[in-house]
Design brief:
It is a single chain. The protein has one domain: Hotdog Thioesterase (Thiol Ester Dehydrase, Chain A, Roll). The two termini are 19 Å apart. Helix content is 22%, strand content 37%. With 147 residues, the protein is an alpha+beta fold. β4 and β5 form a beta hairpin.
Length: 147
């Protein structure tokens, strides 16, 4: 994601999730650990996907599933203990068997951008153990969530 996207208004992001930096999220320098950024994105991404296309669970092997395949993060500023972070999420490019989810993390306290990036999500058939084409209703739901 280009850094100019971070400057876009919150209205261009159809979903957001609020989380708080916990003591266990900190690194030895007392700011949010780089790995914890992934966890914050994961929480927001899963809630967004559940809102748009419903829960995706691997416990029923006959069901269509999703796999998180790739992630890119641009770290912009540190976050600190007890700081509230809002993670904005929106779908990006949708392909035959995958789609991107872009994110933007901002401090609720002062609005500074903490991180931005994207993750690639792949349609997955758990029964065969292979990637699969995204079902049309999933593609449609993703397209509608950008409005």
């Amino acid at each position: 994601m280009a850094s100019n996207e971070a400057a876009m208004s919150e209205e261009s992001w159809p979903y957001s999730h609020l989380d708080t930096v916990r003591f266990g999220d900190l690194d030895p320098m007392r700011h949010l650990n780089n790995v914890a950024f992934l966890q914050f994105f994961e929480n927001a991404r899963i809630k967004f996907i559940s809102t748009v296309i419903g829960d995706q669970r691997a416990d029923d092997l006959g069901d269509f599933g999703l796999i998180f395949a790739e992630c890119h993060i641009n770290y912009r500023a540190p976050a600190f203990y007890d700081e509230e972070i809002r993670t904005y999420v929106r779908p990006g490019e949708v392909k035959r068997s995958s789609f991107r989810v872009h994110f933007l993390m901002r401090s609720e306290r002062d609005g500074r951008t903490l991180a931005e990036g994207w993750g690639a999500i792949v349609g997955y058939d758990y029964a065969s153990g292979k990637a699969m084409q995204l079902p049309e209703p999933v593609r449609e739901a993703l397209a509608q969530s950008t409005h």
